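Team,

Forwarding the record for the chain on the shared tracking sheet. I've put the sequence and predicted structure together so nobody has to dig through attachments.
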Amino acid sequence: MQPSAAMGGGRHGRSRRAILRLGLALPSVGLLAACGASGASGSGSPPAPSSSAASSGGSVSASTPAVSSSATNAPPSPTASIASLASGAASAKATGQATSSATSSSPAAAGTGACVLSPEMTDGPYYIDEGLVRNDITEGKPGVPLQLRLTVQSAGACRPIADATVELWHCDAGGVYSGYSGAQVRGAPGGGPPPNGGPQPGGTPPPGGPGAGGGGHATPTDKLTFLRGGQRSDSAGAVTFQTIYPGWYMGRATHIHVKVHVGGAVVHTGQLFMDDAISDAVYAQAPYAAHGKRETTNANDGIYASGGAQSMLALSMAGSGYVGSIVLGVNA
């Protein structure tokens, strides 16, 4: 073997050493280029909201959904409180899940994954921890079918939170809450027929102050449980409820109550609202029409004015009813 070949001497040796030096530098250049490309892709704008969701106007102009005739769901026996369910979920997960204020996405932002602060709202006088863990909460109550698709997310990262407990409760087509039918009169919080020949239309609003939903808690008058229930979110943070479109009562716009537990603590108490045009279309048919014409819309509801626009369900027609969806985010 020639010394120049063995030791890398001469013109060929110098060329070999230059190539080696270049080869050692290239990986660093490639790494910098890859990092630059990654940074560029991460700085882009979030995807535009999906255009597939039906607008409120489109929903109303379509044929009016038929009223559900199903009446086969018997009320289950409560086995544990919702608070116990939430505590059980917390013990099953790793510790360190901090909880604080909640957020939700507006219908426009729901498809983008962008989380925005959701105002807390009163749970009203008719909350009861019934311990009902179920996805179908109708118990045979007549009305336009409504499927609710809710997703619980981390507010900071917009990532789904599994094992969050989500509770819902709302009034029936006549404006009556289960557990309180004996106390409600027409024109008051429920609007069913006056019990035992009681007051006629024009009764007082629900307890708890103006707007029929603020502070205080009413004592239950019966053991009924319709249109109440809770579920634990799956690995995608999702829960789905089968219910009916809620009715109305004096002083309040159409709404559904929601409460979210994460890590054994309540992290969000809010209310979900509907488009007034859709509500008007639903209330023009039985069994809602028998309750009369409502007086309160979103525009003149005191509770809606405190953040209801950020708690609007994205509603679209589906078969004989509607699908409503929203993303609820919490700092957990």
